[in-house]
Amino acid sequence: MSILKKQICKNVKLLIMVPSRPTAFGERREIRLTWSRTLPENVRVYFIIGKNLNNTINNAVMNEAIYHKDVIMNDLYDSYTNLTLKIYSMLQWKQAYCAKTLYTLKTDDDTIVHVQRLLYWIRKKFNRIVSKKPKTIFGRVFAGTKVNRDPKKPWYVDPVVYNKRRFPVYCNGPTYILSKSTVRALLSAAANVRFMTVEDILFTGILAKKANVYHIDAQQHFGLRKEIRPHVLCDRNHVPYITSLYNVTKQEMKSYYHKLNSISCYPKKRRKRI
């Protein structure tokens, strides 16, 4: 499954895992040139890639993996219908190679991450919550979502697989953080659950509920590209809450990386003298 060595996660506190299509060479290149170019010693970024029907592409991915040493390859055919299995294999890999790593950030390859800022919020906020609730997911939380029963839609779910009218609370798929205990709990809960194609709802919703995992709504930390503004909310140390942006094309990666890095806090309002 991987050409990486067993000790790759020694002293790693944050593991960032990026599911990526075999053909997304441009997206991975832009990530390497921007937000993952310079990382702290306690952070690792790995791309999770399945197999393509074209062996020329598979060979190119293998060469990429050898050169960059940041690719985890599995034997699954890389498709939307296999995305759930891809995420499952990602969590299995984490548990096999990085079981002691405290946090796992799952993020898509159309996402920009401000790693240093995320580490700040882990120290300032996430650690305190996990110390009290070890099984926690941080992300953009959704509740009361209706199950799609239209077979023509990509998010269709067969009643045989899931027979309730609404899904449990879950975190939106592009970006979420799992604590160490959460990864272990989700893998254990997956043993007796039927898989479906809506992977974020399965792992952060259905399996999380079964495993009694706690959800923290962190949408102020994980944003959409269209939400970026020159001035944003910050804490008292003047650190912006926003740590990532998703739905960014490879052509936009550099410009939005600069925007995420250069945003400033809203100016303080001066009190009027009476």
UniProtKB/TrEMBL annotation:
Sorted keywords for this record are: Glycoprotein, Glycosyltransferase, Golgi apparatus, Membrane, Signal-anchor, Transferase, Transmembrane, Transmembrane helix
GO terms (BP aspect): protein O-linked glycosylation
Record keyword Glycoprotein present: yes
The reply on keyword Protein transport is no
**How does this protein lie in the membrane?**
Single-pass type II membrane protein
Question: Which domain of life does this protein belong to?
Answer: Eukaryota
InterPro entries for this protein:
Glyco_trans_31
GO MF annotation: an example: hexosyltransferase activity
Q: Which EC class is this protein assigned?
A: transferase
Q: Name one GO cellular component term.
A: Golgi membrane
- Report the sequence similarity comment from the record: Belongs to the glycosyltransferase 31 family.
In its UniProt entry, what is this protein called? Hexosyltransferase
Q: Which organism is it from?
A: Acrobeloides nanus
Output the lineage of the source organism: Eukaryota, Metazoa, Ecdysozoa, Nematoda, Chromadorea
